Amino acid sequence: TDMHEVMENYVKECMSKNMGQPMVNYESDHLEEINASKLQLFVDWSVENIKKFMYSEKNVYSDRLWTGGIFDVMFERKDGKICIGDFKSSKEAYLSQFIQIAGYDIQQKENGIFTPEGYKLSTGFNVEAYYVFPFGSDKFNVAVKYGLDELRNGFEMCVGLYKLTNE
Questions:
Q1: What is the Cα 98 distance to its own chain's centre?
Q2: Under a CB-based contact definition with an 8 Å cutoff, are residues 72 and 57 in contact?
């Protein structure tokens, strides 16, 4: 079972069965023992830190940058801050992963959040933190960044460099 899918299914079930609030007693069929224990770490973290999951696997795009993507999760923390997170199979978080999340943030702020079919679900949110959930290690080390303007600028520079070198 793919761990990314396992975490995604947990978020989606919280949204559909528990009004977005993290579920303390979550059980899923067909989980390998290692995935179940890793998922439990995410469940425990979610219960402690998240007020509600808002979106899972939603589409965003930017006309200005000519980019698009699908973010893994958007949630509201218990302190009211809106955050975007990404599930990663790496053992730790990398700067490039936060720059990728910054791209999603720029896009959702510019045009809103959409279904895969193109139906607009909401206008953009004021995101205040980015999270990477690396599940490739035995430990569960959630990584968070708050210097969002620098990360957003980094994404725009990456897009510009890509366009410059691929014209």
A1: 10
A2: yes
Strands 127-134 and 82-88, by their bridges, are parallel
HSE (CB half, 13 Å, CA atoms) of 127? 33
Q: In what order do the strands lie in the sheet with 127-134?
A: 120-122, 113-114, 50-62, 67-77, 82-88, 127-134, 143-145
pLDDT attached to residue 34: 61
Supply the angle between the helices 148-165 and 95-111 in degrees, to the nearest 10: 90
Max distance between CA atoms of the chain, in angstroms, equals: 52
- pLDDT value at residue 29: 65
pLDDT at 138: 81
pTM of the model: 0.94
Tokens of 70: 């699908």
Q: What's the burial of 40, exposed, middle or buried (CB within 10 Å: 0-12/13-18/19+)?
A: middle
Alpha-carbon distance of 120 to 111, in angstroms, equals 9
Question: In the prediction, which pLDDT does 158 show?
Answer: 96
| Low-confidence residues of the chain: pLDDT under 50 | none
Distance CA 154, CA 73 (A): 21
d(CA 39, CA 112): 29
